[in-house]
Specification:
Blueprint (H helix, E strand, L loop, with lengths): L1 E4 L5 H8 L3 H9 L1 H9 L1 E6 L4 E3 L7 E7 L2 E4 L8 E5 L4 E2 L1 H6 L6 E4 L6 E7 L14 H25 L22 H39 L2
Length: 225
């Protein structure tokens, strides 16, 4: 692992990587100063193949965005469990534990088949309380939570498409969409509540996949006896 403060890197290089992240690209377009504040709260970290980025059970303040490479997600110990998902460039991870104030629920490591994986780690404390407007503004928070809700719904739709008959398959569709005035504090609160509800559902899916993987291992081991 190599940690690099953004001030040590070429600005053109940093922006080129960050513009692959919809949230950062939008903030840059909306408010250059807010973009600068986010950069000040961030650092770039590169990982060699197989290195752990996030370990299940840990507590930390970081929110991660994958810039380059690919990451493997395991609900259980990677040496014992089975792969349940991948993180690809442009995706955010580590957001679930921040949303629901829980320890990390999965272990994420740099995919061994990629020579290098690079992530942007942002101190989640920069966002502050949902009602605060400094240092991060309401408009920037709206951009973040709109993006978060979109990503969570997309991930839940993927699970649904793979397991249409599962009891969890349609639960996320019952989480109400916001229908009020846009660009308001009311929308921000609604998005925040949606994000928390969707995060809890995604955690349920992840636990379910961990249980399914465990059952698969047991069945495989039994077959070899």
């Amino acid at each position: 692992m190599e940690i690099k403060p953004l001030t040590m890197l070429s600005r053109d290089y940093v922006e080129q990587l960050l513009f692959g992240i919809p949230f950062f690209k939008l903030v840059k377009q909306q408010d250059a100063w807010q973009f600068e504040l986010l950069l000040q709260a961030s650092r770039m970290v590169s990982y060699l193949p197989g290195e752990v980025i996030v370990r299940r059970g840990d507590r930390d303040k970081w929110l991660y965005f994958l810039l380059k490479g690919r990451l493997a997600v395991y609900v259980d110990d990677p040496l014992k469990g089975e792969l349940v998902n991948y993180v690809t460039p442009g995706e955010v991870f580590g957001d679930l534990s921040q949303l629901v104030s829980q320890p990390r629920t999965a272990t994420v490591l740099a995919e061994p088949s990629f020579r290098e994986s690079i992530v942007l780690a942002t101190d989640a404390n920069i966002f502050g309380d949902i009602n605060s407007t400094r240092p991060i503004s309401t408009h920037t928070k709206l951009a973040y939570y709109r993006n978060t809700v979109h990503n969570l719904r997309w991930k839940l739709e993927v699970y649904r498409s793979l397991h249409l008959q599962h009891p969890l398959a349609n639960k996320h569709r019952h989480v109400k969409l916001y229908a009020g005035l846009k660009d308001t504090i009311d929308e921000l609160h609604a998005l925040y509540e949606q994000a928390q509800a969707l995060a809890l559902l995604l955690l349920e899916w992840n636990r379910e996949f961990g249980a399914l993987a465990h059952e698969s291992i047991l069945a495989r081991d039994t077959d070899t006896l």
